[in-house]
Amino acid sequence: MAGRHQDGLNHVIKQIGYHPDYLKEFLGTQNYLLSGDGPLRYDYRHYIAIMAAARHQCTCLISHHKQKFAAQGGNIQWLKGLQYIPKKLMNLNEINKILAHTPWLLKKSHIEKLTKGKDNWSIGELCQAVVLLAHFHCLCSFVFASEILEHPEECQDTGNNNVVSDIESSEEVAQETVEELMEKMNGHMSDFIIQDCTWDDHAYSLLNRFYNDVGTILDEKFKVAYDLTYYTMGHKENVDTTIFRRAVWNYIHRIYGIIHDDYNYSEMEGLLDYGFRSYVETVCFCPEKITKDAHDEIMRAFRHSEKVHVNLMVFEARFQAELLYALSAIMRYMT
């Protein structure tokens, strides 16, 4: 069974491999997050990955990181459930839930709660933790959206998985997520204007300050995912896909309440139809609910590699959105 789970992750890498430039950035980033410099112990990093993947019931990722957790000398008792883990890790579960499903609800008070008291997190530790949480939330989106696991039922079967049963999954908060989205769309929630906390001017610098050069590492990965093009769209050649890529990225930010005030939102109206938007929303908020039929229905004329690229943009745009909310809350706490 363990080998099959590992094989499933190999299939993830195989799909990303349709885009070698991005694959290089992805592998380098993930290796650095889990094995590179940083304030968190290696076993903590893998346990945080487990917590993040459990939000979306992504059992293949959970199983993979359970193995890595054990290999790093992690306390096997922790895998029995959250009641067995240190209080410091337990305290992280609240923002794990918020970041995964309603990141716009993350507040300065959540950060303050984590950085005070006996089992407190330093700002450096917290920066690394939120990057890990966001990375693995969004990797779940890619895993499910791509329908690429050799045994996809293993990624959804949560039986006999104590960590998943202890950490509420998106199945249990799906209605809350929909209600929050409806509230936002009805104008009852303030939009996050990107100029208030930009990646380039604020979040990037904060990460580089407190978590080595991770801001630079992530920035390069975002740029590769956003700029990636082979000047094709389906059977057509010599196509400038800039407008489409910009529309996809900004639409994902928009459903997270993030507004780019220098973007003309009417541009996306004719580019992204209802089916495509619905697909993207599901991949972002409840990726475990994506079916192969739903995946096959959208982007029918696209090449397989182009569909993979769209899923990678969902991964990265969602990742950046989660980080903007998390790092904005940290910055507000620090000021």
Automatic annotation (TrEMBL):
<dbReference type="GO" id="GO:0016684">
    <property type="term" value="F:oxidoreductase activity, acting on peroxide as acceptor"/>
</dbReference>
<dbReference type="InterPro" id="IPR006730">
    <property type="entry name" value="Sestrin"/>
</dbReference>
<dbReference type="GO" id="GO:1990253">
    <property type="term" value="P:cellular response to leucine starvation"/>
</dbReference>
<dbReference type="GO" id="GO:1904262">
    <property type="term" value="P:negative regulation of TORC1 signaling"/>
</dbReference>
<dbReference type="GO" id="GO:0070728">
    <property type="term" value="F:L-leucine binding"/>
</dbReference>
<dbReference type="GO" id="GO:0005634">
    <property type="term" value="C:nucleus"/>
</dbReference>
<dbReference type="InterPro" id="IPR029032">
    <property type="entry name" value="AhpD-like"/>
</dbReference>
<dbReference type="GO" id="GO:0016239">
    <property type="term" value="P:positive regulation of macroautophagy"/>
</dbReference>
<keyword id="KW-0963">Cytoplasm</keyword>
<protein>
    <submittedName>
        <fullName>Sestrin-1</fullName>
    </submittedName>
</protein>
<dbReference type="GO" id="GO:1901031">
    <property type="term" value="P:regulation of response to reactive oxygen species"/>
</dbReference>
<dbReference type="GO" id="GO:0071233">
    <property type="term" value="P:cellular response to L-leucine"/>
</dbReference>
<dbReference type="GO" id="GO:0005737">
    <property type="term" value="C:cytoplasm"/>
</dbReference>
<comment type="similarity">
    <text>Belongs to the sestrin family.</text>
</comment>
<dbReference type="Pfam" id="PF04636">
    <property type="entry name" value="PA26"/>
</dbReference>
